[in-house]
């Protein structure tokens, strides 16, 4: 891999000029290199990056349909994707000098819009959908095109239908997903765009979603952000240092699958839900009503009846004879104390996709969760939300997808290697 990054190419050119006028240029280059290094999230490791990685500020999430029946073409693309993804996460071009250095008469191998930008903590996380293994919600009559049916983990089904959702197939499902997260939207978009370009003829983008303003924290160093209802979101999320809970609730264990699906060990399941939020009616609800729906205060984000954001919710406290945290509040429905201890790792983003033509914002939360077994974690939680949660009145889920996210890569491995070999 080239050691020259997009940023260093530009910085290097500037440095030559600076060196000519004094030693300040050298200092600037060294400092640039430090900044550069700190903007890179390691691509390889026991688990894929982009799951417990400190949540970045921007998202470009893409779901792809595989449009070929040739297994070798899919493997070839995954190998090319891996090489490109590793370079992109290091702040490099897709191939060395790929944007402008390949000559006048070939299409550049890198689209170029990230030239001069740092790696911006880019992470690229891949997942495989049910449709890669045979029939699925998107294509019920599809055969097992790649001979993978026996390797499908039992946990990887299409998500069921939930009450009060309006799922649009053109915003749902997918054979492969790539979650690109970065602190610069242009870096995330550039990554997805270049992977889509590399995959031409093998995959086509089925749907994609941009997100801004993370709605979760995955480390204690991060402040809790706010969602578009104006509430702190992510307070009670699983954090990167909660190793026991991650092992229990996020990472797939060897014991979870038979030998044919061991490729999922160390992986996790990704749930994606595009949840439109009825912003205008919400804005007409009074503050107390909003807080009773969430189960927390809007200012500090404390559980009702408590003072601080990180105080434990107490569902036994009553006022008169009614619980202070209503039983149908979002926190009461989703808190582990009321769900036999079950937790999920949330990593969603706000979105605004303009207006809907009727004067309403098409805005909401692109919910992303990682869990070890969606059937015993996310799915029952979502069923309860749909049936009991007062917040549901203001939510219209219209996109839905489920992916198996394999473990991280060792040196030399490519995305999907343990599934396809
Ligand atoms: C099925 C899982 C969940 C969906 C879907 C979901 C959507 C959703 N949530 C908010 C806003 C908040 N959620 C909060 C907490 C919270 N949410 C879930 C699960 C789902 N949310 C869990 C497991 C939790 C943690 C509960 C707990 O342990 O107390 C909060 C409170 C702050 C926090 O802990 O994060 C808010 C606010 C919206 C707006 C939304 C869909 C658009
Ligand atoms: Fe929530």
How would you describe what is shown here?
This protein has 421 residues and is α+β, with helices and mostly antiparallel strands. It folds into 2 domains: 1-38; 43-420, no CATH class. The protein is 25% helix and 19% strand. It has helices spanning 6-21, 24-38, 71-89, 185-198, 243-249, 279-284, 287-294, 330-334, 378-388, 417-420; strands at residues 58-66, 123-128, 176-182, 203-214, 268-277, 318-319, 322-323, 345-346, 349-355, 361-371, 395-405. The strands form 2 sheets. Strands 1, 2, 3, 4, 5, 8, 9, 10 and 11 form a 9-stranded antiparallel β-sheet that branches. A two-stranded antiparallel sheet has the order 6-7. The longest helix is centred in the N-terminal third of the chain and has 19 residues, at 71-89. The protein is globular. The chain starts with 5 loop residues before the first helix and ends with a helix. Fe (ii) ion binds at residues 330, 334. It comes from Gordonia alkaliphila. Belongs to the DyP-type peroxidase family. It is found in: Cell envelope.
Give the structure's gist in a few sentences.
The protein is of the alpha+beta class and about 425 residues long.
Structural class: alpha+beta
Ligands bound to this protein structure: the ligand C=CC1=C(C)c2cc3[nH]c(cc4nc(cc5[nH]c(cc1n2)c(C)c5CCC(=O)O)C(CCC(=O)O)=C4C)c(C)c3C=C, fe (ii) ion
Question: What is the count of distinct domains?
Answer: 2
Radius of gyration: 23 Å
Overall pLDDT level: 93
Order of helices and strands: HHEHEEHEHEHHEEHEEEHEH
Helix percentage range:
10-25%
Largest sheet composition: 9 strands, antiparallel
Give the termini separation. 25 Å
Number of helices: 10
- Give the number of DSSP strands: 11
Low-confidence sequence ranges? 10-32
């Amino acid at each position: 891999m080239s050691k020259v990054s997009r940023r260093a190419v530009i910085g290097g050119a500037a440095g030559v000029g600076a060196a000519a006028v004094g030693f300040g240029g050298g200092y600037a280059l060294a400092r640039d290199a430090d900044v550069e290094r700190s903007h890179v999230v390691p691509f390889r490791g026991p688990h894929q990056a982009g799951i417990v990685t400190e949540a970045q500020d921007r998202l470009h999430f893409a779901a792809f349909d595989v449009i070929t029946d040739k297994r070798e073409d899919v493997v070839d693309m995954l190998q090319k994707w891996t090489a490109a993804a590793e370079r992109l996460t290091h702040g490099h071009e897709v191939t060395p000098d790929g944007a402008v250095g390949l000559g006048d008469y070939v299409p550049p191998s890198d689209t170029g819009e990230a030239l001069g930008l740092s790696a911006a903590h880019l992470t690229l996380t891949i997942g495989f959908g049910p449709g890669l293994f045979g029939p699925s919600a998107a294509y019920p009559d599809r055969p097992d095109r790649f001979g993978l049916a026996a390797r499908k983990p039992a946990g990887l089904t299409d998500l069921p239908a939930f009450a009060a959702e309006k799922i649009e197939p053109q915003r749902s499902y997918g054979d492969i997903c790539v979650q690109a997260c970065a602190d610069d939207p242009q870096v995330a978009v550039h990554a997805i765009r270049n992977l889509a370009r590399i995959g031409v003829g093998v995959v086509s983008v089925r749907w994609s979603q941009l997100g801004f303003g993370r709605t979760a924290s995955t480390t204690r160093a991060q402040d809790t952000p706010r969602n578009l209802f104006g509430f702190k979101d992510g307070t009670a999320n699983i954090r990167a240092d909660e190793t026991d809970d991650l092992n229990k609730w996020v990472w797939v264990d060897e014991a979870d699958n038979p030998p044919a699906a061991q490729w999922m060990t160390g992986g996790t399941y990704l749930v994606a839900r595009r949840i439109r939020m009825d912003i205008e009616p919400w804005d007409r609800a009074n503050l107390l009503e909003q807080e009773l729906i969430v189960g927390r205060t809007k200012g500090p984000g404390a559980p009702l009846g408590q003072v601080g954001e990180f105080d434990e919710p107490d569902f036994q406290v009553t006022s008169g004879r009614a619980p202070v945290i209503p039983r149908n509040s979002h926190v009461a429905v989703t808190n582990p104390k009321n769900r036999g201890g079950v937790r999920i790792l949330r990593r969603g983003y706000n979105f605004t996709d303009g207006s809907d033509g009727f004067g309403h914002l098409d805005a909401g939360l692109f919910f992303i969760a990682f869990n070890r077994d969606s059937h015993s974690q996310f799915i029952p939680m979502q069923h309860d939300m749909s049936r009991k949660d007062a917040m549901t009145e203001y939510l219209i889920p219209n996109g839905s997808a489920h992916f198996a996210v394999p473990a991280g890569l060792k040196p030399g491995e490519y995305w999907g290697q343990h599934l396809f070999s």
